[in-house]
Amino acid sequence: MQATLIGAPIQTGAGQAGCLMGPDALRTAGLITTLEAQGVRVTDQGDVHAEPAPEAHHPNPALKNLQLTTDWVHSLRRAADAAMAGPGVPIFIGGDHSMAAATLPAAATRAARDGKPLFVLWLDAHPDINTLEETVSGNLHGTPMAYAIGRGAFPMFPAVPHPVDPSRVTMLGLRSVDPPEVAAIRDTGIDAHDMRAIDETGIAAPLRAFLDRVVAEDGHLHVSFDVDFLDPTIAPAVGTTVPGGATFREAHLIMEMVHDSGRMTSLDLVELNPFLDERGRTALLMTDLVASLFGRTVLDRPNRPNAGRLAT
Known about the structure:
- By secondary structure, this protein is α/β, with parallel strands linked by helices.
- It has a single domain (2-297), classed as Ureohydrolase domain (Arginase, Chain A, 3-Layer(aba) Sandwich).
- It is 35% helix and 16% strand.
- The longest helix has 19 residues, at 66-84.
- It is globular and about 55 Å long.
- Mean pLDDT is 94; it is low at 305-312.
């Protein structure tokens, strides 16, 4: 197995500063050595730097950091396209979720070049499917899915020659969805599962059905993993905390099932805000989850100091 790390220290799409430290926090938490322990050959390409893009304008006065985010999307898109042309699994470590405006189109372009359909597993409390006209907060990390599927106009961002097919997108863990996003999910046919549905049926059934489709259609699979997919009691380092997220056990099960499918071709790790963390616990958890995604099982997993020790 091979993996290429690309850091995207972008925070202009988020409402709270701190995500620019995410790539370094994941490296410090041992992401590279953890992957190498799984037999993965890792190449760390360092961090992308935003270069000036064409001037960006839009009539919605609520939009925040439109020019800076546009600069980032253009720069990261070039890096993502290059990474997708190489061997192995590109892992994009961020950075807020606006970075998916670069990684999703790049993944779709590679899939089209290989003659394969692209599937997207979106692990997030939010669908991020607002258009530039609809967003009320103005935070652009709430828009990348709309851009990638061709919903709404994003003239300041790079062209998307191969929009993501919304019928091949599955969202798990939703629990904060704006009214226009509810309508967008219904109208586009995205397979969306909120936490109530997961509470009722469990996480395995919808994920297994999705992965079976990926295998049946011989597709590529891009996984976009937002920290706020997890419950904030186990992953506090995120600026958009929403109670009631996935548990430790649910998250590891997802990672192991995706690994077992053998279909993941690219990965986003987004919205880690070390400024809000507690002694690095969220970065360490994300690192453990990535290890499961690359094949580590419970019997392989080393205990953290004092983990499971009975009180005396």
